[in-house]
Amino acid sequence: MPHNHLPPLSRVSDIRISGNPVLEAWIYHFLTENNIEYLLNPSIVASPEQLRFMVALDEDQVYLPCDDALFLLIYRSQEAELSEEYLKVWRFVSSLVQTYDMSEEDSKRILALCSYRFNLFFSERMILPSRMAKRLLAIVLTQCGDPDPFQEKKRAANERAASLLANPAFRAVLHQCPAFDPACVSLPDMRHSLSLIEMTRLLALSTLTRRPEEDIDPEAVQKDIEETAATSANLCALLGPEDSPRKKILYIPDVAGEFMFDLAVIRVLVRLGHQVVLALKDSFYFDSPTIWDMDSDPLLKKELESAYLSHNDSLTKNELLRLLREHQFLIIGDGLSEQMNLHRASVSFARAWKECDLIIAKGRRNSALFLGSSHAFTRDMLCCWRSADNAFHMEFKPKAAWARQFPEQEILDRARKIIGEMRNARDSGKTVMFYSAIIGSIPGQTRTAVQLVDAFVAYLRDRLENTLIINPAEHFEEGMDGDDLMYMWEYVQRSGLLDVWRFQTVEDIEKSFALLERKVPSAWSGKDSTFSTGCTKEMRIALDMQKERPEMQIIGPSAEKFFRRRDYGVGKYFDATLKV
């Protein structure tokens, strides 16, 4: 259908699936062509719930992993400008093929194969340039049998940057004393201010590493330091004064060479008491540092000795929080072999984003993606890059005003309050019961599910004397997702204070509808707690606790009926997928 049938849009954040079938069809076509439609490929594309860990979205809002300017080129079919973006990708890929030592026939064959795909993408003009680059790169790397053709180039860039950092003349300028600040009132305050100044200088100077070596002399460094002197106030505003609570920071680097400066910045952050999660590419993407570079670069291996490296791309909330408690500097893979794309980022990356307080993103590409998008994000963000005119930029983008973060301590405080009520009930001679029931496992039925649970628990409270019944639906707060709730309830459930653990049965549901004076709808017919993977996780916990306390009763469907289900989904209250 011609583009002139589409409604006018001026920003990528204007995209919503609400009542316009033509726009909705275009959106699904775009998502499908870029392979970022979750329902078509749920094994590699982030679910809507996982995406909401990072992007502040309304219910009907769609996120596209590009800046507004690029989106409008595609949406308005502006062929000349879009063609130039595609040709940039082709020049990168064709120059990469030329770097290989291969026969002329092999080179022609690979370029011809790439050109067939390129011409297809070029003619349709629906694919994001970054997604085109990924697909063409996959062809080249597969055909050439080389997982990282830039390995030596990245090592050389890191060695050059390390040499620069160790150069006495460079260090003398980097560490020169700033002008005295009359507002400084204490030595701790001064130490904190000096650390922020050092960090700002490192961030600014890191982006010089792409310049020719003869251009990076003490005089040029001195000029850069003078020009960026005022930007340390931006860091002070984000990180707070010396006595402010320490933050969890997700650090997204840009390129090798510059990466050595990033590690110096991270050392300053760790010295100040902050926790840092460093996200590296999972595989080759030109000169971006990857999680595997430590295996081939002895310099990196030495520099990262103090960090803990997790190779798990699907860390659970419990596992990630445990690692953050145990390690101040954690390295994870972002799940990507392309420019930053939140639709294809790993579960570990999404959860790290959710648990952190601040995102620091380096480089022009990341800055364009995050700052150039009209979408709001769920965490405060600081982007640092150097523009084409060689000016250093440090820009802050605040999180969405309504984005709510539930830190681990707040979730645990909620759990401890419930445990306190349970303990008081036990001390007064009451029986303590937990009721596990379907809440979100039936799409579009969450409100009904809550009504059913509330009605049935009220019925039980009338019938059962001297019993405290824990109803999970009564402790839900807007903004808490499935990860937060499951984390809280597991802490409660493993307290050892439960006497009875009751799981919702078919009869419970039928009785609940009768209490509401309603017939059982077909969507609920035959359902019970075994249809919820949240309940399935809870059954595993119940069986664990029963081993410790054999006197605890488990009432409801047999345990075997639960274990055909997978674990609950990322950020969901459920994952209704059966194992097949």
Give your account of this protein's structure.
With 580 residues, the chain is α/β, with parallel strands linked by helices. It has three domains: 3-144, no CATH class; 151-397, Rossmann fold (3-Layer(aba) Sandwich); 408-561, no CATH class. Helices cover 47% and strands 9% of the residues. It has helices at 21-33, 48-51, 68-75, 79-98, 104-124, 129-144, 151-166, 168-174, 187-206, 218-227, 232-239, 258-271, 293-296, 298-303, 317-326, 347-355, 364-371, 408-427, 446-463, 482-493, 506-515, 533-548, and strands spanning 248-252, 275-280, 308-309, 329-333, 358-362, 380-386, 392-397, 431-436, 467-470, 500-503, 553-555. The strands form two sheets. It has a seven-stranded mixed beta sheet, sandwiched between helices. The chain has a four-stranded parallel beta sheet with strand order 9-8-10-11, with helices on both faces. The two termini are 39 Å apart. Mean pLDDT is 88; it is low at 575-580.
